[in-house]
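Much of what follows relies on a compact textual record of a protein's fold. A record is reproduced here so that you can trace the correspondence yourselves:

. . .
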Amino acid sequence: LGQLSLDQTLPQTGTTVTLLIRPGAAQILPQDQQATHNFLQGAIRAVSFRGKYYQVWVQAGQQNLMFELPHFSAAAGEHIRLTLDPHAIGIFPS
């Protein structure tokens, strides 16, 4: 996914881990803004309005990720750029 900054102590190098990204971790990154950490881009695979939020499925590299965004106007097939809140990302030993 790229380089991530996390709000927790990292495990020892070489440790196999599972990465958890909370659905509410993402915010849309405007086209004129750059980010180097906690940034991902991908193709929108599906969008579903859920009342208080939009459920957005994004394919970033080989990963299919689901995020909950309060406002959303893009459609499936379009590309999106997102930033991730470091407090909403966790690493757990596998």
